[in-house]
Amino acid sequence: MLLGRKRKLGRMIDEMTKGEKLTLTEKIEDKDLLLYLGLTDDANPLYIQHDYASQTSFKKPLVPTIMLTGIITSAVSKYLPGPGSHIHKQEIHFLKPVYHYGTVNLFFEVIEVVRSTNTVTIRVEGMNEDEEMVIQGELQVSPPERLEKMDGKALENF
């Protein structure tokens, strides 16, 4: 249990500035797809059956858009602003499909910091290995909050 241990948190609102950027590259491998599809019990043939997908307009199996969303939200939780942050709203457009074994280069930029509401707006764009735009979106995020020293009142939720 983490009780009483120091927790590493991401950056607080007063440590963030408009214009901050983050770049991540994700290569979509079989192990990632199988883990996701197994956890969600998603058997959509467009995601897993090469023979089916080859007969569609896509020609190849696709990476589920919700899996790509998970990669984006994970970047917020891990890096920008980091641990302790929370996404309130997201609007993500999937402009082109991402295929199995594809690479997605994700670019994040803080476009607004509102200290009074403890929120930041982050723009995200994703490019595939052919440098085509495949993802565009915005997220409204609350960075982690500064914590008070733990006392008996903080433990009432347990």
Structural class: alpha+beta
- Rg result: 19 Å
Overall 3D geometry? Answer: elongated
* Average pLDDT for all residues: 88
Distinct helical segment count: 4
| Share of helix, binned | 10-25%
Fraction in beta strands: 25-35%
- Lateral arrangement of strands in the main beta sheet: 1-3-4-5-2
List the secondary-structure elements in sequence, H or E: EHHHHEEEE
Main sheet? Answer: 5 strands, antiparallel
How far the N terminus sits from the C terminus, by CA atoms, comes to 12 Å
List unreliable stretches of 5+ residues.
Answer: none
How many strand segments?
A: 5
Give me the secondary-structure topology:
Layout: E1 21-27, H1 30-40, H2 45-48, H3 50-53, H4 65-78, E2 86-94, E3 103-114, E4 119-127, E5 133-142
Antiparallel strand pairs: 1-3, 2-5, 3-4, 4-5
Explain what the structure shows.
This protein has 158 residues and is of the alpha+beta class. 21% of the residues lie in helices and 30% in strands. It has helices at 30-40, 45-48, 50-53, 65-78, and strands at 21-27, 86-94, 103-114, 119-127, 133-142.
Quick summary:
The chain is an alpha+beta fold and 158 residues long. The protein has four helices and five strands. The longest helix is centred in the middle third of the chain and has 14 residues, at 65-78.
Question: Which terms would index this structure?
Answer:
single chain, 4 helices
